[in-house]
Amino acid sequence: MPNSPTYLGTVQDVQGATISIALDKDTVSGLAFIDGHGYRIGQIGSFVRISIGFTDLFGIVSQVGAGAVPEALAKVEPYGYRWLKVQLVGEGQRSSEFKRGISQYPTIGDEAHLVTEQDLTRIYGRPDAPNFVRVGSLASAESIPALIDIDRLITRHSAVLGTTGAGKSTTVASLLASLSDPDRYPAARIIVLDIHGEYHAALNDRATVFRVNADKARGEQPLFIPYWALSFDELLRVTPFQGLNDADRAALVEKVKQLKLASLQSHVRSGVTADTMTVDTPIPFSIHRLWYDLHRYVCSTHTAPSANQRGTTEAIELGPTGQPILGDIMKVNPPQYRPITSGGTDRVYLSGAPLNIRRQIMATESLLRDSRYDFMFRPGPWCPNPTFQNLDAQPTQDLDALIKEWVGGDKPITILDLSGVPVSILEDLIGVLIRLLFDALFWARFLPEGGRIRPLLFVLEEAHAYLNAGNAGAASIAARRIVKEGRKYGLGAMIVSQRPAEIDPTILSQCGTMFAMRLANATDRSHVTGTVSDNLEGLFSMLPTLRTGEAIIVGEAVHLPLRAQIDAPAKNRRPDSHDPKIYSPDASCGWNRHKQSEDYARLLETWRSENPRSINNPGDKP
Amino acid sequence: MNRASVSSSNVASVGYDPSTLTLEVEFNNGSIYQYFDVPEIVYHELMRASSIGKFMHANIRDNYRNIKI
């Protein structure tokens, strides 16, 4: 008769890592008190210790009661007995560290014990280790911190998954606050791709925010992505030139190469010469000039038939002062051509250009005028501004300044707030952003600012929006590259999503650590369960009933799968993802406030300017 | 591009691609031309014209940029 108060019962059935334990008749069910702490016996997800000689095996309770009876005994004991089904997860020598994996299995009759806080501290507790950060506390024992190994968390990638309102953003904000602690990790570098602009409020003192239509008063920096840093294929994806036939595409490649070459010849850029330059080399060229040159090539009219057409035969209308109306390159005004005539002495012919891209040129004209795309096609100091006097004008800044702004700023976190980016190009844009940073840090891997010496963590918010399964989009390709190869070059990814089923399984399966929060949808759950090892399925059946802010953390960054209550960040560090109130107690907003006369002209103004903050005093004043 | 045979004194077959607004015409002497930015309605008018050759000459030949294939 065992006399230890932690004694539960004996092992009766071993099937690989799954074992069945019969509770002893004298074991109380419900609460047991050990050293003044109350423990619940037979809670799903709680731990069990099995001592075999000098080794302790640890397992997680996955099933309790009659259903946990071994199949062979089910007939003998139809009403069951008090059984526990336990999944073994690791072992620890007495007085030494806990390790994943099992070196020997228990046999019939081995004693199973309740795991006390003392044991748990041995398993989880290393609060002083410098490579561990605290994200919360164990759900079963609040005094024990949930610690995450940041080495593995970042280089082996991670995923934070859970339904809307399960506390994903809060978890991410809490993690980022721990990772960017200036006292512990002064050189941390993290990039957050923030689709909805939620994180500014949570991390305002640790993060630099880049945003399209930046609000300088809130300390935001303008987000620029120079089009000339894109590869040719990426550029085609975001312009109307997508889907050209081979002949037209080749002509366009030639034209872009020609412009880049001219730029390189007028301004030497170290690292590349005219011989090593390709159409994909990030060298400034002017897309406005590309459009203007193509327009004059394809859409012009001439005073000579196509065989004899030269630059001098162009039939451009004359203005009132007798000057030809040449238009304006940067204002995207095309020149005015004389209409074609079918006869007479002064006959005007169509251009003989053999390219069928007139409609694409027209569409590019509207694209370059669209102010929503200015962050890309008029990227501030990275925009070359050619004029007729200086066609090869160079931008005032080169890419080094851009990358330094993003990953080399004084603050550890950079938030790229993409809430103002047109949805149609969002996916391509995210692909470009990731690809640019990957390339930069990849090639710089032996430099002090490269990825190997100072790794970079990408946080991909709302990942289901752009990392869809079976998607050949630029974002998926770039994210796949990070999760597959990033480890070697110091690039880690943290995928955050509420629809794991919609995320490319390749990407999800490469995430070494999983923070699974409440997930109700069965398809989503099966995706999460499918990526973890089999014997933990019992643990994952808890997913629909997790509390808000509670997560099951499995994978490389934790010793043992653990169920943790994530620390809620301080009031000033909460992400700005709260839903609007329909009923608000103080009647300041929602449907229960008094109706006020509303100025819809202001609404129209913000809409047309496509900037929610373009009006100085929004909403709160009548 | 698929071209349909037509009966005309100098045009052998005509094809049209509405997605790129390209009209492709094969003449009886065997040469093939592509005309760019031709509206679909012009193509339909061409096919309905009593004389395809005359319509080509009057409305298409000099009005649309073309290349010989």
Sketch the topology of chain B as an H/E string, one letter per element: EEEEHHE
The count of DSSP E runs of length 2 or more, i.e. the number of strands of chain B, is 5
**Strand order in the sheet with the most strands of chain A:** 11-10-23-22-21-12-20-19-13-18-14-15
Average predicted confidence as pLDDT of chain A = 85
Shape by Cα distribution of chain B: globular
Helical fraction of chain A equals 25-40%
Walk me through what this model shows:
- The complex is a heterodimer of chains A (622) and B (69).
- Chain A has 622 residues and is an alpha/beta fold.
- Chain A has helices at 117-124, 150-155, 168-179, 232-238, 246-266, 287-298, 358-369, 374-377, 399-407, 423-443, 474-489, 505-509, 522-531, 537-540, 600-609; strands at residues 7-15, 18-23, 31-34, 37-40, 47-52, 55-64, 83-93, 98-100, 111-114, 132-138, 145-149, 158-161, 190-194, 207-211, 221-222, 301-302, 349-350, 413-417, 456-460, 491-497, 513-516, 550-555, 562-566.
- The longest helix of chain A has 21 residues, at 246-266.
- Chain B has 69 residues and is α+β, with helices and mostly antiparallel strands.
- Chain B has two helices and five strands, in the order ββββααβ.
- In chain B, a hairpin with a 5-residue loop joins β1 and β2 (11-17).
- Chain B is globular and about 30 Å long.
- The interface between A and B is medium-sized, with 13 and 11 residues.
